Amino acid sequence: MYKILLRQDLVPGIHLFKVAAPAVAKKAQPGQFVVVRIDEKGERIPLTIADWDEGGGSVTIVFMEVGTTTARLALLEAGDAIADFVGPLGLPAHIEKFGTVVCVAGGVGAAPIAPIARALKSAGNKIISILGARSQDLLFWEDKLRSVSDQLIVTTDDGTYGRQGVVTEPLKELLESSEKVDRVIAIGPSIMMKFCAKTTEPFGVKTIVSLNPIMVDGTGMCGCCRVSVGGVTKFACVDGPDFDGHQVDWDLLFARQRIYLDEEKCSFEQWQRSIRLEESST
Amino acid sequence: MAKLNLNRVEMPRQDPKVRGKNFNEVALGYSLKQAKEEASRCILCPRRGCVEGCPVEIDIPGFIKAIGDGDMPEAVRILKSKNSLPGICGRVCPQETQCEATCSLAKKGAPIAIGRLERFVADWERANMPSSSSPPAQPTPNAKQVAVVGSGPAGLTVAADLANLGHSVTIFEALHVAGGVLMYGIPEFRLPKEIVQAEVDYVASLGVKIELDSVVGKIVTVDEVLNNGYQAVFLGTGAGLPMFMNIPGENLNGIYSANEFLTRVNLMKAYCFPEYDTPVKVGRRVAVIGGGNVAMDSARCALRLGADEVYIVYRRSEVEMPARREEVENAKEEGIQFKLLTNPKQFLGDEQNWVVGAECYEMELGEPDDSGRRRPVVKPGSEFTMDVDEVVVALGTRPNPLVASTTAGLETTRWGTVVADEETGKTVKDKVWAGGDIVTGAATVISAMGAGKHAAADIDEYLRG
Questions:
Q1: Which residues of A touch B250 (CB under 8 A)?
Q2: Cβ–Cβ of A259/B281 closer than 8 Å?
Q3: Do A223 and B402 touch (CB under 8 A)?
Q4: What pLDDT is attached to residue B135?
Q5: What residues of chain A have any CB closer than 8 angstroms to a CB in chain B?
Q6: Contact check, Cβ <8 Å, A68/B353
Q7: CA distances from A114 to A51, A129, A148, B392 (A)
Q8: Nearest residue of A to residue B350 by CA position?
Q9: Which of B194, B212, B218 best probes binding to A when mutated, by most A CB atoms within 10 angstroms?
Q10: Residue range B282-338, pLDDT digits in tens
């Protein structure tokens, strides 16, 4: 069992857990993920590592409530424990001195991009970060990203904070400006990553995206997470999760992410019923 | 002397019509009376061909005689002195090509049903002997430390043997339960997980530590293990990487590798969805590509999940099928349909990316290939389309490269298997042994256990040396 040392509610529906996992903390690198299983009946889901503390023996994950597992996870408090916490999995993000790197984070993507931006900054890159959310009340880690960026641009879809619009707009302006952009990293909802890649493609700027297909084991055993990159089938869990966004078959990714929509709905409804039963009986 | 009975005692099984709708075990096992009757057929011949045919050299006539004498604790003792996983072996070993093939009775009639008797002894022990009756061995005070990577049949065997020899053993397992393919691959109806867990618990009771959720190559490397005080490492990581056909349409929704399909169903208990959180798609018309045991397991799982029609699509004919005869018969009895001499050309999808068909070639058999089996050849112009809404690709597996690729100094083949001495399992890397599917490519549970036994003996000799 892996104990939750700290819980923080970052914004509505997005939570941070610091989990005791010393051996994982010792090996974690930016861009890697863990597979989490809450309990005996739980499914295995991948969550990107948001931070780690080797000395304190902990790993930080940030997750958004999107289905049964994340909603169940959100009910846990500091002091509770998670049955399984496996990692660090996947290949680490490619860190070297590229020059100027634009880090684009959408929504919950702010969490996994933070350690990557930090490592790229340490490697001597100029970091321009673009942080986007639907609305001001869904923005988090602005300060954290600012501290590892030379410049930070914040956007909200509804204009309640920062600049109104989506992340691809400032991204395009940067590419058109006198700034020589050497690399773009985009992490967030798949549709955002796709449009970031589409934005940078005409400029020929290498764009790395962190794919989030459905996974089971996370070690290359099942092939559930297969994606097509440059016409070749890859397993995101062991060959990724980072890939060249210009080479990704986005439609395939979107289609495969929808495989279990019906079952996810059924599972969520059943879980909500069970919660209501529990509440009414107490 | 009584006349030799050339027919074995049948083992009761669930009716095919009933069992096709549940995940309970198909074979129900002998009663004590049936076991004694079957045991009485053994002529205790001096040739002992069965022992020679057994990869772990169980004293088979010895435990059969004990059953006949009604001395079950003695039968348990004899069996377990060579085999720590008898409940598993009695169910999934291909006895028909091993101990039973070399039985003296096989020349005249049905060989002794050794597998059924082995299973009977293991089940009898679980039901009648509390676990404390097998005294746990404790590591000796200055025990050497051995790390075992992977808790499948090879790893469990190495660990049990070395613990029995007084060494201190730790198993590192990537998944959240121990047992490897016995847990994620072989279905409940053929090998109940409760039995696997009981035998894993037995290995743990010998003093073996099992570290779950530990992906060697990620959380720790083999070299780090060796630097952390372990004097020897055994790699038993199996063949866990699924192979696909690399034909168009293979990434359509509804197309699974057998590994994914079986992992969802067995390890994650998707057949209990939504009580368990992991789902699996339930197809109406399911095609399973392949002719091995894994293909049979997948087909029979699909049927039990509720599919209307399940097809085995295999490119050769039935004689070339690598699956155990018994499993093919079980599948047929349950209503699995066999599309032989058939091979997919591509999978067809709808606009939502869901598989709706498999375009296949008819095949014919040509000259024998490297495997000695006649090579399947495409019949030109024979394409036809099968309407299917789910496909399971069961074409074999290769070793997962995670360990080999993070361990300097190991030698691997172009199939990704680790090179190790056939007799001892020793790799070219100092202090590292390997055995089971990671060395041979996908094979059987018992051959992995045999490799584990030999490696354990060699590791013990090395540690004492």
A1: 233
A2: yes
A3: no
A4: 56
A5: 23-24, 27, 37, 41-44, 68-69, 83-89, 216-217, 219-224, 226, 228, 233, 238, 251-252, 255-256, 258-260, 263-264, 266-267, 270-271
A6: no
A7: 8, 10, 8, 39
A8: A255
A9: B218
A10: 899 999 999 999 999 999 999 999 999 999 999 999 999 999 888 999 999 999 999
Is the CB of A42 less than 8 angstroms away from the CB of B277?
Answer: yes
Residue with structure tokens 């097809």? Answer: B311
Residues 145-164 of B with CB under 8 A from A: none
pLDDT digits (tens, 9 = 90+) for B64-111: 999 999 999 999 999 998 898 999 999 988 888 899 999 999 988 999
How many DSSP H helices and E strands does chain A contain?
9, 16
Q: What is the pLDDT of residue B419?
A: 96
Instruction: Extract the tokens encoding A224.
Output: 């559930």
Inter-chain residue contact A251 with B402, CB threshold 8 Å: no
Q: Residue range B439-447: average pLDDT?
A: 89
**How close A103 gets to chain B, by Cα (Å)?**
26
For residue B354, give the 3-state DSSP assignment: strand
Chain A positions in Cβ-Cβ contact with residue B175 (cut-off 8 Å):
217
Angle at B46 between CA B45 and CA B52, to 5 degrees: 95
Identify any residues that bridge with B433 across adjacent strands, giving them in sequence order: B234, B426
Q: Are the beta carbons of B263 and A264 separated by less than 8 Å?
A: no
B266 touches chain A (CB under 8 A): no
Verify whether the Cβ–Cβ distance A223 to B400 is below 8 Å.
no
Give the SS3 label for residue B197: helix
Chain B contact set for A67 (CB, 8 A): none
Token duo for residue A151: 């410049």
The CA–CA distances, whole Å, from B58 to B72, B95, B133, B452, B453 equal: 16, 13, 21, 14, 12
Of the residues A2, A37, A217, the best mutation for testing chain B's interface (the one with the most B CB atoms within 10 Å of its CB) is A217
Alpha-carbon distances, residue B83 vs B41, B47, B87, B123, B204 (angstroms):
23, 21, 10, 14, 15
Task: With beta carbons less than 8 A apart as the criterion, state whether A61 and A36 touch.
Answer: yes
Shortest CA distance from A224: residue in chain B:
B260
Contact A154, A128 (CB under 8 A): no
Q: What is the chain B residue with the closest CA to A258?
A: B253
Which residue in B408, B21, B75, B87 sits closest to B226, CA to CA? Answer: B408
Answer whether A216 sits within 8 Å of B253, measured CB to CB: no
N-to-C CA span, chain B: 52
Looking at residue B446, the DSSP 8-state letter turns out to be: H
Token pair of A225 as six digits? 């997470």
Radius of gyration of chain A (CA): 19
Given a cut of 80, whether residue B132 has pLDDT beyond it is no
The mean of the pLDDT values for chain B is: 93
What pLDDT, on a 0 to 100 scale, did the predictor assign at position A280?
Answer: 81
Per DSSP (E only), the strands in chain A are 2-11, 14-20, 33-37, 45-53, 58-64, 81-82, 84-89, 100-106, 126-133, 151-156, 163-164, 183-187, 207-210, 226-229, 232-235, 242-244
Distance from CA of A25 to the nearest CA of B (A): 9
Among A92, A82, A89, which residue's Cα sits nearest to residue A36?
A82
With beta carbons under 8 A apart, name residues in chain B contacting A226.
251
pLDDT at B138 over 70: no
Question: What tens digit of pLDDT does each residue of A21-45 get?
Answer: 999 999 999 999 999 999 999 999 9
pLDDT under 70 in chain A at which residues? 282
Strand partners, B453: none
Q: What is the dihedral of CA B40, B41, B43, B48, to 10 degrees?
A: -100
Distance CA(B270)–CA(B272), nearest Å, equals 5
DSSP β-ladder status, B390-393 and A232-235: unpaired
